[in-house]
Amino acid sequence: MAVRARSLAGRLADSFALTLTYRSGGRGRGVRDFLSALWRQRPRTVYVFDMSLAGVSAAALYKAATGTPVVIDTGDAITDLARSIGRGPVGVAATAALEWASLRLADHLIVRGRNHRALLAERGRTNVTVVPDGVDLNQFYLHPDRDPVRQRLGLNDDLVLGTLGSSHWNDRLQTCYGWEMLDVLDRLRDEPVQAVMIGGGDGIDRMKERARHLGLTDRIHFLGYVPYDELPSYLSAVDVGLSKQTNDRVGQVRTTGKLPLYMACGRYVLATRVGEAAHVLPDDMLIPFEGTHDPSYTDRLTERVRALVDDRRVLEKGRENRDRARQHFDYDDLAQRVETVLRRLD
Predict the structure, then answer these.
(1) Do domains 2-134+331-345 and 147-328 have the same CATH topology?
(2) CA angle 53, 54, 58 (to 5 degrees)
(3) For residue 324, is it left (φ>0), alpha (ψ between -120 and 50) or beta?
(4) Would you give the end-to-end CA distance of the chain in angstroms?
(5) DSSP letter string over 105-169?
(6) pLDDT value at residue 54
(7) In this structure, what are the phi and psi dihedrals at residue 242, rounded to the nearest 5 degrees?
(8) Which of 150, 162, 229, 263 gets the most CB atoms within 10 Å of its CB?
């Protein structure tokens, strides 16, 4: 969220007087700090990144007192997300109330995917603009010398799968983000394939434990948190970026921040045919996925990876993704969409 906020604000600084305010501490402190900043700055428009309780509550209180218009930027259908990650009835109800209040509060909504806009249109919301997750193409590109990272990790000349993102264990489904990489490595033991997992979360320990159980600790590399500025060199060392979204409302409304980064670095991508990926990637980079949990997805993913091992020339098609990233996800263009919204409300 902070990267998105800074990336958009930096490109709008010549057109507007902008102030970024970040939450620190708990929700109560966040509401207080946000309100204090609003009263001090007296903005003509309030732009809230994420449907979070602190930001939405502070914006609502400030709007009630001053009538200031509010823009809310969200990348998720948050009630469906709360349900999918296994929150209890009280948590889901609280999230649903927050989503309802946010939709009523917002004078304009910014969403990350065109499917989300269509969903909101079905609910009668027309004040919606699609501004997907973006990328700075001057920062993210294919590094010409990726050998140092590959040598440091011991990737050799193997085909390297990469996944970027937080991995949180889902007790209901007994899986987490990135889990499928272990299944692919297990099925392709006799092939020169390795994997890199970038990111944290409580699912990582589960993945490490399973990797040990399967005897794959030398084939998968858990890098943990990598600073944003260092991501291009690591993504350049990967051959195939993996992006799995469930084919339900949670996945259908998303872009996911990793997809533009993979594409800007000219990486070949294997993504589920869900959300914005289904709109921007060529057919040979898309894999069908059914519902919330698709046991046969790993079979399809394994066969795609096996085909890439057999013919690595196909990986060169990944370089075309940089042009697609420029067309769909360049922050220079996305900032212009935000500027249009802000001028309309001013």
Answers:
(1) yes
(2) 115
(3) alpha
(4) 24
(5) H-SEEEES-HHHHHHHHHTT---EEE----B-TTTS---S--HHHHHHHT-TTSEEEEEES----
(6) 95
(7) -100, 135
(8) 263
C-alpha–C-alpha distance, residues 262 and 328, integer Å: 13
Summarize the chain as % helix, strand, coil (round to 5).
50, 15, 35
Q: Whole-angstrom Cα distance, residue 50 to residue 59?
A: 12
Tokens of 262: 């993979």
pTM value > 0.85:
yes
> Is 180:297 a contact under the CB 8 Å cutoff?
yes
Contact 82, 250 (CB under 8 A): no
In which residue are the tokens 């697609």 written? 324
Distance CA 60, CA 162 (A): 41
DSSP reduced 3-state for 47: strand
* Tokens standing for residue 307: 């085909």
Query: What's 158-220 look like in SS3?
Result: CEEEEEECCCCCECCCCECCCHHHHHHHHHCCCCCEEEEEECCCCHHHHHHHHHHHHCCCCCE
Question: What's the chain's length in residues?
Answer: 346
Just give the CATH number of 2-134+331-345. 3.40.50.2000
Instruction: Locate the domains of the chain by residue range.
Output: 2-134+331-345, 147-328
Say if CB 248 and CB 80 are below 8 A apart.
yes
Indicate the pLDDT class of residue 256, thresholds 50, 70 and 90. Answer: confident
Q: Which amino acid is at 65?
A: A
**How confident is residue 292, by pLDDT bands cut at 50, 70 and 90?**
confident
